[in-house]
Amino acid sequence: MKKNTLLLFVLIISICYGCSKKEKKAKSPRSSQEVKAKKKTVIPTRRDMTSQSKNIVKLLLEKKYDDIYKNFDDSIKGMLSPAKLARGWEGLEKSIGEFKKIKGTSKEDRGKFRKYTVHAVFAKTELDFKIAWNMDEKITGFFMSPVSGKTISFKDASYVKGAAFKEKSLKINPGTKWELGGYLTATGVKNVPVVILVHGSGPHDADETIGPNKVFRDLSYGLSSVGVDVLRYVKRTKAHPGECSKIKDINLMHETVDDAVSAFQLIKKMPEYRNSKVFIAGHSLGAFSIPLIASKMDADGYILLAGNSRPLEDLIIQQIKYISGFKKSLSPEEKKNIEKIEQQVSLVKSPKLNSRTPSEDLPLGISATYWIFLNKYKPVELMKKVLKPVLILQGKRDYQVTYQEDFKLWKKELKGMKNIKFMAFDKLNHLFMPGEGKPSPEEYMKPSHVSPLVIGVVAKFVKN
C-alpha cells in the first residue's frame, strides 16, 4: 500500500471526494457566439493558493483553529468546529512527533476544486496535508496521509498469526486506466474460502486506514490467521482521483460496484481457488452496496458490516446533529449551517432534483447524478432477491449507521428469510472496535483493532 489515509478529522460521510464532476449547464437558445462570450465572463480566474495552503498548515501547527475555521466552506463548517479540529489534531501529535519542516508543495485541478498538497516532515513520519479549495477560495476538503515508505508504525492485533499466511501483491483491472493495487493474504491451502473486502465512503487505501487504525488489514490478517484467504485493494477514488473527476454521471457503480465485480472475477480465474467459495464483505458504504453488487455476480455469500438500510442523506443530517450535540450550545453560524444542510437534504428528496442541480446545493457538494442514482437504489428491496447466504453485522455503539434505525430495519424487512443471519455487538463502534461511553469521532483517533469476536463470526460463516 501504499499511501495510508490518516484523517485529520473524521468526516461524517465523504463519499466521493475527488470524484465530483463538473456541473452541466442548461442549454441556451442564444447563438454559439453568445454562449462563448457568456462563458468568458462567468468563469472565474483561479488564484494560486499555494501560500494560503502552507499557511493553513502553519495555523494548525500553531493551534489557531478558529483562524482555520474561517477558511472553511459552509458545507463542512457544520461538521468540523474549531473544537473538533483541536481534538483531532492534538490526538495525533504524539504519533507523528515534532514538526521539522515543509519539504514541498504541489497542486492538482479536480473540476470545480483545486487540491493543494503540502508535504511536511515530522520527527516520526512525513505527512502530505491535502487541502481542496473551491472557486470561492474556501476549503471543501482537508485531510492528510503519510508519505509512502514514511508511514507511522502499526502494531498488528494479538490475534494475528503471521506464520499462518503470506501476503502477495496483485492488480485489479490490470492494464486498464482503472488498474488498482491489491493484496491477497493467502494460507497456501487450495480451495479455502476467500473473502473480498469492499470499502466504506471516501478515498480509501487497501487497509481502509482511518486515523491510526486499519480496518481491512485487521480483517485480512485476522481471517487469514484462521484459514480464510482475503483480497483487499485500493479504492478507485484513492488510486485515480483525477480520472474519477472526469466521469460524467458518476454514481455508486463507478465508485464501488464495478471494482468489486472485477475483484470477484479475478479470484474466480485463479487456479488455486477453482473450487473455493468466494464471499463479498462490505463495510459501511460497501455494505450499503452489497445488494447491488449481488445483482451483478454470483458469489457464494455476502457480509454486511455496518451497512445502512436508510437513505444516505438521512444519515448525513442525523450524524451532523449527533456530533453537534456534544456542544452545550450552538453558535448562530453553526445553526445556520445545519439549516442549510437540512435544505440540501430536502432537495435530494424533492422532485425538483435533476441532473442540472448544482452540487453546491446538495449535501457535501456531491453531484446531482450521484444523488439521483441513490434515489432509485432500494437496497432493502433488492436484498430480498438475494438467495445466497447473507450475514449482517452491527456494532451497537455505532452512531453513523445505527443499531436502532438501520440494523432493526434490515431485521424487520428481511424477517423470515432463512438465508440471512443477523448479529449485533454491544460494545463495538462503526469500525467494529471496542469502546465505552458515548461514541464520538475522536474515538476513531485512538489506536485499536477490529474485535476478535467479529473475526470469529465471519470465519465461522464462510467456513460453514
Helical content stands at: 25-40%
Structural domain tally: 2
Termini separation comes to 31 Å
Top CATH class of the largest domain: Alpha Beta
Amount of beta strand = 15-25%
* Classification by helices and strands: alpha/beta
Overall radius of gyration:
22 Å
Main-sheet strand order equals 5-6-10-7-11-12-13-14
Classify the fold: give the CATH topology of the largest domain: Rossmann fold
Instruction: List how many beta strands DSSP finds.
Output: 14
The CATH homology group name of the largest domain = Alpha/Beta hydrolase fold, catalytic domain
Shape, please?
Answer: globular
Poorly predicted spans: 1-43
- Output the number of helix runs: 17
Largest sheet features:
8 strands, mixed
Average pLDDT over all residues? 87
CATH architecture of the largest domain: 3-Layer(aba) Sandwich
What does this protein look like?
The chain has helices at 32-42, 50-61, 65-69, 74-77, 82-96, 215-224, 236-239, 241-244, 252-269, 285-288, 290-294, 312-324, 332-349, 368-376, 379-383, 403-413, 452-463; strands at residues 99-110, 113-122, 126-133, 139-146, 166-172, 180-186, 194-198, 209-210, 213-214, 229-233, 278-283, 301-305, 390-395, 420-425. It starts with 31 loop residues before the first helix and ends with a helix. It has 2 domains: 44-146, Nuclear Transport Factor 2, Chain: A (Roll); 162-311 and 373-463, Rossmann fold, CATH 3.40.50.1820. Mean pLDDT is 87; it is low at 1-43. The chain has 464 residues and is α/β, with parallel strands linked by helices. An 8-stranded mixed β-sheet has the order 5-6-10-7-11-12-13-14, with helices on both faces. It has a 4-stranded antiparallel β-sheet with strand order 1-2-3-4. The protein has 17 helices and 14 strands. Strand 3 (126-133) and strand 4 form a beta hairpin.
